[in-house]
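### Sample
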Amino acid sequence: CFDLGFSCEKCDFETDLCKPLHELNLQPGWIRRNGRSAMGPPYSDHNGNDSAYFLSLSSQMRSSSATLRTNVFLPTDEEHVCQITFHYWISQMNGTLMVGIHKHSEDTITNIWQVSGELQNQWKANTVTINSTEKYEV
């Protein structure tokens, strides 16, 4: 769920890709699948639904990295904070999942959250809160 101020946009991949991840089709490595796809775990989404869709790294990407990039978000302020809640599954000991922010005046991506080195084999959830005085992408 992408929570921007008073609006909340769910991103569930059921019919297509959600609006915040419009550039997904340009990012190699990610595939849209469900638990019935015979690709190994997870065998359902975070609600236990085996026919619900989620994004997964393709098996060819095991040793490299892949990026998801959001649309451009407007600056935040005291009344309009940005919170992004996401569910994730790690099935490799050497995998690292990172969330970063790319402000438009900067050339680099600042890491704001990461998890690695845990073979969890279960869905977990995390929420990041973003404050930025300028336009940004996550």
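Confidence is low (pLDDT under 50) at residues 1-6. This sample (MALR1 protein) is used throughout the tutorial notebook.
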